[in-house]
Specification:
Layout (H helix, E strand, L loop, with lengths): L1 H17 L5 E3 L4 E5 L2 E2 L5 E4 L6 E6 L3 E2 L11 E11 L9 E6 L29 E6 L13 E6 L6 E4 L1 E3 L6 E3 L8 E8 L4 E8 L10 E4 L9 E9 L5 E12 L18 H21 L3 H21 L3 H6 L2 E2 L2 H7 L8 E5 L2 E8 L4 E8 L7 H11 L10 E7 L2 E7 L6 H5 L9 H21 L2 E4 L8 E3 L5 E3 L6 E4 L18 H6 L4 H17 L4 E3 L6 E3 H11 L16 H14 L10 H9 L8 H15 L30
Parallel strand pairs: 19-23
Antiparallel strand pairs: 1-18, 2-5, 3-4, 4-18, 5-17, 6-17, 7-14, 7-18, 8-9, 8-17, 9-10, 10-11, 12-13, 14-15, 15-16, 20-21, 21-22, 22-24, 23-24, 25-28, 26-27, 29-30
Length: about 675
């Protein structure tokens, strides 16, 4: 009887102890795994393997009590773990992993790639998530304002970090910062500690085997109590994207109200062979199997199967093409090709950015060809409609003074255009005072004639009239030989010759917009001529459109300044001082006067591009009457604040009689 009572008491004590909320644990197998996560007998926890677009979750199987009541403060906690990330390609990460505090050990609907298996596109940012995460991210996602592709961040209910820094640690002796590369494949140890009294969260990372630094990488004073419930689960979440990565947890300790016990590095499991070695073994096995099958007489069957798969894949690819893609046919690049070419769209490959998106430098690995990739984000001003216009127009244009479109790529809501790389950048940078590049007069005159030739092709030589609508030095690029090439056709429109070449949306850059375009909103070849005239004046003068006269006077428009000098007989005083009088005066005067004529306030007085090319080549001479006409027109516009009719000038000489500007561009169905 006594023995029976002892047994019953022992069982009750075991049951009571099993229901006790734990406050400390070590990596001991009491885990819940889902997705791609695996655990081996040696204690190695594999979150993701070489598979792309996957998600893995690992949580301690029991909830932890973080506070005693809903309104109570959070208890202090500490955790440390050793991790390693081995990407499929050494320099390109496959997204990262995160330490997670979650109200549940199940995260249904979580997406891979940039969402790290924590959220999806509908619940990210919701206050009801109650998710705290410390992310170790190896891909820069502009959607979440990531600082780079190698950072540590603290996230609350979203992946836009409250605080983030490039992964690394500070030397205790010198204070020097040493960057750590998360995707190097080397094991690293991280400490995450929260002081409930001070409401301070610290994150420290360092190489395995080295002393833990005193100064943390991240330190954030923040009250977590509104975001953490009484009982929460702790664990890890990770994801892969287009590029795969193997992610491992080699050891993990956690403690409430105290410091987690340090890990014994010598007892941790080893990282398995690299993903590349696994692929090599797999490929060798496939070769052996292929030889065996061929010897066994199955070659014919294999060819039939492969042929069927190829045809099926080709049909499937054709089905996803839009009608315009089949019709216009520039080469379509794969996203993976562009991702590898630009080194994952790294910041140090960025050439520039603007309203259209960002432009990156890249090198195609298959041909070693240098390219420029325009990446158009989903919230850019240049969306799908403009993208289709650019593909359909510039994809078929061929001229030595136009930037050549090599191809394009569409991926979800992102758009990519691939151009020839222009090593000398934009003309605007060469004209600026901050540039080390100084253009002499012969180079400037050649560039002006290059752009005129390209614009003449767009207006009058191609099968359709193309209206560029944004001609300026920033959109003129220079190749190795300093040849000018007109680019950025994001605002281009086109129509049949003889039809009304007008568009209905105002676009372009302030200062280059013709008066009638600002008034009516309709662009045509004449409004391009206005912008080209301003462009020529800028190239000669080396000045911006608006420059301050002095610190005490108002700003002065470039055209007004040139007109004043011309009226005084000192038009050559407007030439860029960097030329130091080393120029051909007749050529300079020609370009200045032609620039003023092209930017005439009255559209009918502007010449056609064919006439402009003839003037620049010396085939035709500017009429002597243009000075009085231009000065009188500007004076009339200043007095009435409206563009005037060009007096004393024969408009037949400057207008294109084959074009009529009466019907809307849309009326022709284009």
């Amino acid at each position: 009887m006594c023995n029976s009572i002892i047994v019953i008491l022992f069982v009750l004590l075991k049951l009571a102890s099993s229901n006790t909320v734990p406050d400390e644990f070590s990596f001991n197998g009491c885990l819940k795994l889902d997705g791609l996560a695996e655990a081996d007998p040696n204690g190695l926890l594999t979150l993701t393997t070489g598979l792309g677009r996957g998600v893995a979750h690992v949580f301690f199987n029991l909830p932890l009590q973080f506070k005693n009541s809903t309104a109570g403060s959070i208890s202090s906690f500490s955790t440390t773990f050793v991790f390693a990330m081995v990407p499929e390609y050494p320099k390109l990460g496959g997204h990262g992993l995160a330490f997670v505090i979650s109200p549940s050990k199940d995260i249904p609907g979580a997406l891979p790639c940039q969402y790290l298996g924590l959220f999806n596109d509908t619940n990210i940012g919701n206050s009801s998530n109650h998710i705290i995460a410390v992310e170790l991210d190896t891909v820069q996602d502009f959607e979440f304002d990531d600082r780079d592709d190698n950072h540590v961040g603290i996230d609350i209910n979203t992946l836009i970090s409250n605080i983030s820094k490039t992964a690394g640690y500070f030397d205790d002796q010198t204070g020097t910062f040493h960057e750590l590369y998360l995707k190097s494949g080397d094991p690293m140890q991280i400490w995450i500690e929260y002081n409930g009294t001070k409401e301070q969260l610290n994150v420290t990372i360092h190489p395995v085997g080295e002393t833990r630094p005193i100064r943390p990488l991240l330190s954030m004073t923040f009250d977590l109590s509104p975001y953490i419930l009484d009982f929460m689960y702790v664990g890890f979440s990770s994801a892969t994207g287009l590029l795969a990565s193997s992610q491992y947890i080699l050891g993990w300790n956690f403690k409430m109200d105290g410091q987690a016990q340090d890990l014994e590095i010598s007892k941790l499991p080893k990282i398995p062979q690299s993903l590349g070695e696994k692929k090599g073994s797999k490929k060798l096995l496939q070769i052996i199997l292929g030889v065996t099958l061929s010897v066994a007489g199955l070659t014919l069957i294999s060819l039939v199967v492969l042929g069927a798969l190829f045809v099926s894949r080709k049909k499937k690819f054709m089905e996803i093409l839009e009608d315009w893609e089949v019709q216009y046919g520039p080469h379509r690049f794969t996203y993976k090709d562009l991702f590898v070419a630009t080194k994952g769209f790294k910041e140090n490959e960025l050439l520039g950015s603007g309203g259209f998106g960002r432009v990156y430098r890249g090198t195609l690995p298959s041909s070693n060809t240098k390219i420029a990739v325009k990446r158009i984000s989903h919230d850019s001003r240049q969306g799908m409609r403009e993208f289709l216009a650019e593909i359909s127009t510039i994809g078929r244009l061929r001229h030595p003074n136009l930037v050549r479109l090599l191809g394009y790529c569409r991926r979800h809501h992102e758009l990519f255009l691939v151009y020839d790389y222009m090593p000398n950048g934009s003309l605007e940078k060469c004209l600026s005072n901050k540039s080390n590049c100084t253009l002499d007069w012969s180079q400037r005159f050649k560039i002006i004639k290059d752009v005129a030739s390209g614009l003449f092709y767009l207006h009058q030589q191609w099968v359709q009239v193309v209206i560029h609508r944004d001609i300026k030095p920033a959109n003129v690029l220079l190749d190795n030989d300093m040849n000018g090439k007109l680019g950025d056709f994001g605002l281009a429109r086109f129509c049949d010759h003889g039809n009304d070449p007008q568009t209905s949306n105002i676009a372009g850059t302030l200062g280059y917009i013709a008066p009638e375009l600002a008034r009516t909103g309709r662009a045509n070849t004449s409004t391009d001529l206005y912008a080209f005239g301003i462009f020529m004046l800028e190239v000669v003068c080396g000045r911006r459109l608006i420059e301050p006269r002095s610190q005490l006077q108002d700003q002065q428009f470039l055209v007004d300044w040139i007109l004043e000098c011309w009226d005084r007989g000192t038009i050559l005083d407007t030439v860029d001082s960097k030329l130091e009088n080393r120029y051909v005066a007749q050529e300079v005067e020609l370009v200045l006067k032609l620039g003023l004529l092209c930017s005439h306030p009255c559209a009918a007085a502007r010449p056609s591009m064919s006439s402009v090319v003839q003037y620049l080549d010396g085939i035709a001479q500017l009429p002597d009457t243009i000075r009085a006409s231009i000065i009188q027109a500007h004076t009339s516009m200043e007095n009435s604040n409206q563009p005037s009719v060009a007096p004393d000038v024969s408009t037949e000489r400057y207008s294109n009689p084959s074009l009529t500007f009466t019907e809307s561009f849309a009326s022709h169905g284009r």
